[in-house]
Structure formats: C-alpha cells, structure tokens
Amino acid sequence: MKKILIADDKATSRELLRTVLERQGYEVMEAADGEEALQKALAELPDLILLDLQMPRRTGYEVLGELRKDPRHAALPIIALTASAMQGDRERALAAGFTGYLAKPVPLVHLREEVQRLLQTKE
User: Fold this and answer.
1) Residues 69-117: pLDDT tens digits?
2) What is the CA radius of gyration of the chain?
3) Would you say 68 and 74 are in contact if contact means Cβ atoms under 8 Å apart?
C-alpha cells in the first residue's frame, strides 16, 4: 500500500484529503505544520507528499528544500498545495522542485488524477 503524507495547518483540509485518499486505498499520514511534515517525511519515507506552501514553523518551500537535500527524497513526488494561488505561482513551485501543484479548494477529481499519475510513474 502506498503511503501519502498530507502536510497542512488546516485540520479541515487534512480531513477532506485524508478521506478521499483513504477511499482510494492509500495509507495516509498527517502533519499540522512544516516542522512536523519534515520530521515525518524523514522518518516514514512516504511515497508522495501533499505539502501546503504556507504553514507555521516551516513553509512548504523550506520543507521541500530540506527534503531535496536527502538522497532518499530527491525524486519523491511532492505536490504543492495553496489557497492563495496567484498568476505565476504554479510555475514558481515547479521551478523550485515541486512535482505537482494544486490550488485549494482542490477539485477532488484533480487530486485523484494527480496522485494516481505521480504514483504510477514512481518506482
């Protein structure tokens, strides 16, 4: 079973994402801030991370930077999540090293498609 880490400071967002992903058969872990996300990612080695860009203790960009330094996470699919999507944000996130980008509220069909696409190509 593939493991997915959801890192978002909003409990309602984590709950919605967790419910959808668990129904798709994924094992789901959660983190409520950037530091917790980093520690869980390093300890648990998930197959994919959904990472909010604006969180307390460490931003999504900071977490991404730390994870990409670790060879075990160099190619890990990491999807940026943001509620404040502005023009050019998607391009900036992808240029920074995110594998995907989803604006909140995330259309659930897009979430399922993106997760499935990234996990099918990962091995």
Assistant:
1) 999 998 999 999 988 767 778 889 999 999 999 988 888 898 999 999 9
2) 13
3) yes
Q: Is the dihedral of CA 12, 122, 46, 62 positive or negative?
A: negative
Q: In the structure encoding, which two tokens stand for residue 84, read together?
A: 């404040």
> Within its chain, how far is the Cα of 86 from the centroid?
19
Cα–Cα dist 93/31, whole Å: 20
**Phi and psi for 4 in degrees, rounded to 5?**
-125, 135
Domains and CATH numbers, the chain: 3-109 (3.40.50.2300)
CA distances to 1, 27, 88, 116 from 9, rounded to whole Å, are 25, 19, 23, 24
